Amino acid sequence: MNIEHLVTMANQIGTFFDSYPDREEASTEIANHLKRYWAPRMRNQLFEHIDHEQGAGLSPLVLVAIAAHRGEKPSPPPPGGDAG
């Protein structure tokens, strides 16, 4: 998949969770969304972009979320589904 498209999609997820008043919760939910719904190949491309291009084009919140939660397993979805 095209990295520009992945960056755009990651930033859209970040924009949604940016409305959360708790920054830690927003960061966790961004990471959980990427882990739950993105194929490993997509996440790996995004990680390579961060490692080689310093995440050019990614929002600061998305970069923080990925850096903080990159190696963790996602939390289970909340009852009734995921808001993201």
Shape: globular
Largest sheet: none
Segments where pLDDT lies below 50 for 5+ residues?
none
From the alpha-carbon coordinates, what is the Rg to the nearest angstrom?
Answer: 12 Å
How much of the sequence lies in strands comes to under 5%
How large is the count of helical segments? 4
What is the helix/strand order?
A: HHHH
Total domain units: 1
- N- and C-termini, Cα separation: 21 Å
Secondary structure: number of strands: 0
What does this 3D model show about the protein?
64% of the residues lie in helices and 0% in strands. The chain contains four helices and no strands. The radius of gyration is 12 Å and the shape is globular. This is Formate dehydrogenase subunit delta. InterPro entries: Formate_DH_dsu. It holds the Pfam family FdsD.
In a nutshell, what does this entry contain?
The protein is mainly α and 84 residues long.
Key features of this structure:
4 helices; Formate_DH_dsu; 84 residues; mainly alpha; Formate dehydrogenase subunit delta
Explain the layout of strands and helices.
Blueprint: H1 3-17, H2 23-37, H3 40-53, H4 60-69
Helix pairs in contact: 1-2, 2-4
